[in-house]
Design brief:
The structure is a homodimer.
Chain A lengths: L3 H27 L5 E2 L11 H13 L2 H5 L8 H15 L8 E4 L1 H13 L5 E5 L5 H8 L3 E5 L10 H7 L4 E6 L12 H18 L4 E6 L21 E6 L12 E4 L7 H14 L7 H8 L8 H17 L12 E5 L5 H9 L3 E2 L1 E2 L8 E5 L4 H17 L2
Parallel strand pairs in A: 1-10, 3-4, 3-5, 5-6, 6-7
Antiparallel strand pairs in A: 2-8, 7-8, 9-12, 11-12
Chain lengths: 394, 394
């Protein structure tokens, strides 16, 4: 009775549910503290105290009608203004409130911009491994996801293949740096090359190609890694940002799109993004939390907590013989599976009560994703299991 | 450069923006207090104090990770449980948490259920006049909106035409009572007849037809009007509820779907609604406000404020010679335009600084919608203008 398109999703989602149920089953048998769940990207660091403080003072100080009412579909004007100024201050850009659209998280933002841009059959390019939802978001608007195979040496994008796969059907490119699942940060050199290729192809096909930068992990970087601000490198760039990880607020669904003045067809694009926000049923990003994040634009979670996790897990896994590119951002390790079939390898890990996600879920088999946004002590407890698992393959 | 489908929306939305700008222009010339904006359905009654209190105590008492983190795509289990019990208590139903999916307002809920149900070309029936967004929501999933012309005597639905227009392509029916824009509440008799017709047609075509009840105005009723709970009358009923009006929280985007056990294909439907919540980019309804509404399920705004507005505006307009069915719910009057062209009539009203929406926007020309969710004193100040406007047509 349900939609044909949704039927296939329902089948997949029951596989995921089965995995989740399996975790609960293991916890029952072995005790919760002896099951090591590295499968979810749910921030483990508490939201900064400033967020709670901001929410309470807004509730105490402001008129309820001003904090829970409808506003423009783009969000509160003053919130958007503050965000624009904060970006300008941090990155030397020149945005105004009119360039910002508040969104229901980055996922909401991506849906809004893809709905605004895509005609059926339009191609959207992304680089494997990639966040699996991109395929669904593009498919929502009958677009076609085209993937570029990775350079497994350092997981910087394979730019030769990128250049070859851009066609007259290419409408947009999604990049995600710091990357889920690899944790890799794209270098400025890489960004410059991507911009160069896109400029050339825009001319060649005489059309606009939009670069959509999905940036939920922008603030989670280590070793002083720099994450270039893409609007400065390529004109037709749209940024999708989220406060889910920077402030540990994933449940609140709050983020924004940046659509610069200089994007082709700017006026229509902004209008379309407003309308898409409305008709997709978001209507507007949740109101109270808009006001709260606007008071916390200089705040972020304690990244050092994730960094300690990263160092412990990375160095331990390497010493056991695993192969992995050391991530400079996000909270994931993308580790080479010790057998060809990543799903079988994830099953083998489960025998040690270790839950990890096969790389196939990110469009790149042969690897597994380990989310280290967990308690440090859980990582410690899990290490003997990771060692035994490696030893089994020796 | 933007999507073809969106281009037509952008054109329409610039008309609406022009209207909004016109309001601002008039306010500049005549002073804000001399412009009477009846165009928006933005609740004028303050949210109940209990909501602010609930939000603050949750923020003070609970772990931040538990109020801002990810949860199941359906929403917090305990929140859904409380909502199910509250519905059971009020309407004698028998729901569990598993029947409730928390949504980003009613608009989010309708998108989720339509995405779950529709194949391209599937027909969705609704009764004119109707909330204009239904057309867009159905079109998002390539469905076809089929409208039933109204019975203008009392704006109860025209059931003969309804019966005729159900076809083998009908997948769903959307009803909205109390109704936007008429304020009419469908009688139990009407609901029983609708159920009867749908049961007959389900048998005739040997397929499921889902009745989607869009209920943002359920709590806003006057004269002790009863709003039947539809799951009790027809098996394949899905409820879309919102707290936007009952608690004056439209900016917070919080509501829920009820999908009863007895709906055909229940398991798949629930799964599909979960997946749709995820892949449309909602991911989950905003988290903190989920917890807050769960503490305020027995609270509602002071409906008497709207009732006073209704009585004043309705009796005044009638005394000036306007024709209107007295609404029993919501906060709208649907008034017969004094000339055939409702758009011209709305223009004529603007000359008296009165802003109202042509019925064409609700799929029913010849009428205008007057939203009385405004200050009582603004209604008082507007009355001479309404009188002059009527006199012009005498």
């Amino acid at each position: 009775m349900i939609s044909d398109k949704m039927m296939s999703f329902v089948k997949t989602s029951s596989v995921i549910r089965a995995m989740f149920e399996e975790g609960k089953r293991l916890a029952k048998i072995y005790g919760k503290e002896n099951v090591y769940d590295f499968s979810l990207g749910n921030p483990s660091v508490e939201p900064p105290a400033q967020i709670t403080k901001a929410l309470i003072s807004i509730l105490n100080e402001e008129e309820p009608g001003n904090i829970h009412g409808y506003m423009n579909n783009s969000g509160y004007e003053d919130v958007r203004e503050k965000i624009a100024l904060s970006i300008n201050h941090n990155f030397g850009t020149n945005f105004r409130a009119a360039n910002i659209i508040m969104t229901v998280g980055a996922a909401g933002g991506l849906n809004v911009i893809l709905k605004s841009l895509l005609n059926p059959g339009d191609e959207v390019i992304t680089f494997a491994p990639y966040f699996g939802e991109y395929r669904n978001y593009v498919s929502n608007y009958d677009g076609v996801l085209v993937t570029i195979s990775p350079n497994a040496k350092d997981f910087q994008p394979n730019l030769n293949e990128f250049e070859e796969k851009i066609s007259s059907n290419t409408k947009a490119v999604i990049i995600n740096s710091p990357n889920n699942p690899t944790g890799v940060v794209y270098s400025e050199e890489t960004i410059k090359r991507i911009a160069e290729i896109l400029n050339k192809k825009e001319q060649e096909y005489n059309k606009s190609i939009y670069l959509i930068s999905d940036e939920p992990y922008r603030e989670l970087v280590y070793d002083n890694a720099e994450v270039p601000y893409l609007t400065k490198y390529y004109k037709n760039t749209i940024i999708g940002y989220s406060f889910s990880k920077s402030l540990s607020l994933p449940g609140e669904r709050i983020g924004y799109l940046v659509i610069p003045d200089e994007t082709d067809d700017y006026e229509n694009l902004i209008s379309a993004a407003n309308v898409a926000t409305r008709i997709l049923g978001f209507v507007n990003a949740p109101s109270l939390i808009q006001r709260a994040v606007a008071r916390c634009l200089d705040v972020k979670v304690d990244v050092e907590v994730y960094n300690r996790n990263r160092e412990l897990l990375y160095s331990s896994l390497l010493s056991y013989g695993y192969e992995c590119v050391k991530p400079q951002g996000a909270f994931y390790l993308f580790v080479k599976a010790l057998e060809q079939d990543d799903k079988k390898f994830a099953e083998a890990a489960k025998k040690h009560n270790i839950l990890i996600v096969p790389g196939s879920s990110f469009g790149y088999p042969g690897y597994v994703r380990i989310a280290y946004c967990v308690d440090y002590s859980m990582i410690e407890r899990s290490l003997p299991g990771f060692k035994k698992l490696a030893d089994e393959y020796k």
